[in-house]
Structures are given as structure tokens and as C-alpha cells.
Amino acid sequence: MRWKTTDYTGWGRALTASGDIARPERRTALEAILKDGLVPAIGMRRSYGDAALNDGGRVIDMTRLDRMLSFDTTTGILDVEAGARIGEIAAAFAPRGWLPAVMPGTGFATVGGCIAQDVHGKNHHKAGSFCEHVVSLTLLTGTGPVEVSPEKTPDLFRATAGGLGQTGVIVSARLKLLAAKGDVMVVTERRIADWDEFLVRLDASDATYTVGWIDATATGANLGRGILEEGETGSGLITQRGKYRKVPFNAPHFALSAPIVKAFNSAYYRRVPETGRTVVRPISDFFFPLDKIHDWNKLYGKAGFHQFQCVVPLGAAPALREMLEEIAGSGLASPLAVLKRMGPGRAGYLSFPMEGYTLAVDFPNRAAARDLAKRLEGRTAAAGGRIYFAKDSLAEGTDLGAMYPDLPDWQAEVAKLDPEARLATDLTRRLSLRSAQ
């Protein structure tokens, strides 16, 4: 297998790595690589920080192992290689009345990446996390292939689900797809006046898919205002689909200055009529709205950006409000801010979700933003919440034992499978995840 030395980044582009990358096209080529020892596997690098980086070492790019192997129309079980993208699965199966049970905010995420992060979607309050719909998976370990399932190998499954790729290389998986009414989304949009109304609406929502865009620049009586979207699958004709655009160059520093972001957010808030509205959208426009703008991460400039995402228990909502107040008062927030209600569903020792509220906000990579994110991490820990490894690039890891009480169980399982830490990445080293806390 040919190795190519290159520089690469995560989606946030604030953290970088340099090393050898191989891109096998067949499982036999992958197995040949691993005969010399385990190597971390990566996908489309849609994690924002350093989860897919191994600076100075080697990684295996799994994106050519992207075949859909078989589908059972009776059970809805899809057998698929780990490099397949979630958006491609949705596009292939939505017209046939099926969707991936859980989809993150980008269709470019691979199946292997979704398992390694145990991702959640706009239906977490109903469907739980991604790996709760994984029937089984094939894992290449230092001793060969292992079939992993919640029933037959529960400890290994829980260490692999959300386990950041540290138990082995995920080769393929059997996914239980969700029955869908069709290949479009019927979406109800309504303005939300403030933080208190947002929580009430989120708690009361019975829609299958629910997500809130929040104006993270609004302060005072408008703190927490935004737009609530509630969606259901449907069938019908979409006469006009959104055009794809590309950001051709890194935006200048002033493009995301506080006045410009505030003006944009105000206009975006008012795009929905006061009385609300119901619209029909293509599946991809609802689930992956930013995918239509290729290389949208360049909008943050050459220095890149960081995202802070946390979840706090239901009873800690006042603490989350205080975090939003600090974010809004900082003048650092971008237009990309999301608020969701989460259920209890999680499949792995290091799975992010807990029942509560999750807030995600993007910040340009500036010193003040980095300091703010670290303060928000401390507030999250004090509130009994946790941060999301798929988005993190700044945490120091001092509170991870409290955030993730199952961490010792994960460490013990990982140590059995990879005692030499060959699968370690920049993220696991930065947070000392594989060391005793």
C-alpha cells in the first residue's frame, strides 16, 4: 500500500497535523496495512478538532471503502462499509421509504465516524443515538477481525460506540434503518421570542425531528430568541432544489465581526413570519443545510474556528442560560448556534448524550474565543454536564472523570485491545484519555 505524506486538518482548521496517509480501496488492502500493526482510521474529517488527527504518525483514510453491501427490505437492515457517507445512504434509501435512524448535521459524515462518535441528530429525544441502531459491526483488531454486537460482546460494543476509534478499525456495520413516509420533509417553523419560551417549546414538542437555531448575539429581553423547526417525513414533488455553492477563498477577518454577525442574525430571525409557516423541503436541505455550501469552513478565515458544544441535565437549564449570557455578551459568536432537547439514549461508555439541553456555538479562532471556550468548559462541568469530543479542540481534560463516569471501563477495554496505544490520536493525547484520571 502506498503512503502519502501530507498536511491535513479537522473541519475547524484551527488544529493541523502532518503525516502519512493510506487510502485502501478493498478490505484485503486494509488488512495488509494492519499486518504491520494497528493504525488509526479516519473518514471525511468532519470532526471539528483533532479527533481525526495523528500528527507525526500514520492514518488510514477509509473513504474508498464506501460500498453498500446488502439491504433487507423486510427488516430494514443495511450492511455497509465504514467509509460510506450518511448523506449518500439517505439519498439512496429515502425514495424507497427508509432513512438512517440517526443523522448528524452533515451528510459527509461516514458510518465509521458516526459509530466512533456515537453521533446524535435532530431526533435524539425520540430515537436516541446512532449506535443504538447498530445491529453489529466488524472490527479489525491487533489479533484479527472481530464481530461486535450489543448482545454477544456488550463490553467491547460499549467501548467502540463513541469510543473514538480506539478499539480497532471499524470495517463495516449492519444498520437498522428507520421507515420514512417519503423523500421530503414537511417542516413547521416558528419564531421563539426568548430563552424561557424556547425551553417550553422544546419540552412540549412531539415532532419526530426538532431543532432550534438560536441567535447567540441577542441580549437582554431577547436573550435566547431564535427559530424552532419541527419536521416530519413526507412525500411529494419538490419543484426547486437548492443550488450548491462553494466558498472559493478564506474570508477576511472582518467578515465575522460582531456588527456583521448581529445584523445577519437579526435578518435571519425575521425570515420566518411572526405567525410561523409550514414548508416542504428536500431531505438533504433539512438534515444537512450547510452541505450546500462547499468549504463553508473558509468563512472563518485562514485561522479556522472552534466549536463549543455541551449538554447539561434538565435541572441545570439556568446554568446553560448563564453560559448563553456570557456568549452573547462576548461579541464572539458566529451565526451558527444550535439548541436541542436530548433524551437519555446513549450506547457507549464515552457517548456524549444525556437527557437535557445541548447548546453548540461556533467561534472564530481568536485568543478571546479560546479563553471563553475554556471558561464554558468549567461551567459545563460545574453544572453536571459534558462536552462533545466530535466538536472539541480546546478542552484540557481536567474534568473528564466527572463528565464521563464510565471512562475507567472504557480505558480498561481499550487497554486490552491496543496495549501499545497504536491507535492514539491527537485528541486522546491532548485529553490524556487513555491515562488514569
UniProtKB/TrEMBL annotation:
Keywords linked to the UniProt accession: FAD, Flavoprotein
One Pfam family linked to the record: FAD_binding_4
Annotated Gene3D superfamilies: 3.30.465.10
KW Hydrolase (keyword) present: no
Ranges where the FAD-binding PCMH-type domain occurs: 13-180
PANTHER family on file: D-ARABINONO-1,4-LACTONE OXIDASE, L-GULONOLACTONE OXIDASE
Protein name per its UniProtKB record: FAD-binding oxidoreductase
Organism: Albidovulum litorale
Top-level taxonomy: Bacteria, Pseudomonadati, Pseudomonadota, Alphaproteobacteria, Rhodobacterales
